[in-house]
Write a structure and sequence with these properties.
The chain is built from ten helices and no strands. It is an all-alpha fold. Keywords: Membrane, Transmembrane, Transmembrane helix.
Length: about 260
């Protein structure tokens, strides 16, 4: 018996693989079929969004209350400031008119000067005139700065006063001082300032309208309705007004009822 050695013997000694009973394609198909399909996950319900902290009931009520309180405080402060402004301008316009009124009285003061101290009276009245002239110039500038309309009307009033009152002062200095009590009543034939009345009314009307524009709307509306009712309501005659009818009733003649009258 011969023994085979070498590579041929090693090759013959290797085990022969046993062929599989299942074809390759069939095996892969069976493997695919046996693989389980994973089940779909259950639908997840999203949690509700958290409520913002600023929309909570108590906090929202507190915020609204604070906002209303701030608004009321601001409105009250604004109204107070407006009233203070109206009061300040009212004092200014009345002080300006007071300076004009003092200037208006100078012709009377010059005629009523003391006759026994002529030199001292000239100095005193000159100082008074200088002080009033300074105030007039001051208020002309100030009223124009506060309101162009009121300032223009006041300037016209002062210019007209310097013509009329200045002429009255000129004549008063030429006249002798008053030495009798009866002469203290100076008639309009001596000093006539009636031509200034129209300018005075124009100034008062101008600064009243300016102050009215600074008033709250309900006050302006009430003032407007009041002036409107005064304009459209006709004066009552004695036939429709019982009080005026009683006044218009003729009174009995007292002299005829007196038995001692002749």
């Amino acid at each position: 018996m011969s023994t085979t050695h070498g590579p041929a013997a090693s090759a013959s000694a290797a085990p022969t693989p046993v062929p599989s009973a299942t074809p390759p394609q069939a095996k892969s198909s069976a493997t695919t079929t046996s693989t389980a399909v994973p089940a779909a996950p259950p639908p997840t319900t999203s949690a509700p969004a958290p409520t913002p902290w600023w929309t909570s009931g108590p906090l929202l009520a507190a915020v609204v209350s604070a906002a209303v309180a701030i608004w009321l405080a601001a409105r009250t402060a604004r109204r107070s400031e407006r009233e203070k402004e109206r009061a300040r301008q009212r004092d200014l316009f009345t002080a300006a008119y007071q300076a004009y009124a003092d200037y208006r009285e100078l012709p009377y003061a010059i005629r009523r000067r003391r006759h026994d101290e002529a030199a001292a009276e000239r100095v005193r009245l000159s100082e008074v005139l200088r002080e009033i002239q300074s105030r007039l110039a001051y208020y002309q500038t100030w009223t124009a700065a506060e309101s162009e309309t009121v300032g223009a009307v006041y300037r016209t009033l002062v210019e007209q006063a310097r013509k009329v009152v200045g002429g009255g002062m000129h004549e008063a200095w030429k006249a002798p001082p008053i030495t009798d009590d009866s002469a203290m009543n100076i008639p309009t034939t001596v000093i006539d300032l009636s031509s200034l009345e129209e300018r005075e009314k124009a100034y008062v009307t101008a600064f009243h309208q300016h102050l009215q524009a600074l008033a709250p709307w309900w006050r302006r509306r009430a003032s407007w309705w009041g002036s409107k009712s005064n304009m459209i309501s006709p004066p009552q005659s004695s036939e429709t007004n019982p009080a005026r009818k009683a006044q218009a009733k003729p009174q009995p003649d007292e002299t005829s009822s007196d038995p001692g009258a002749t």
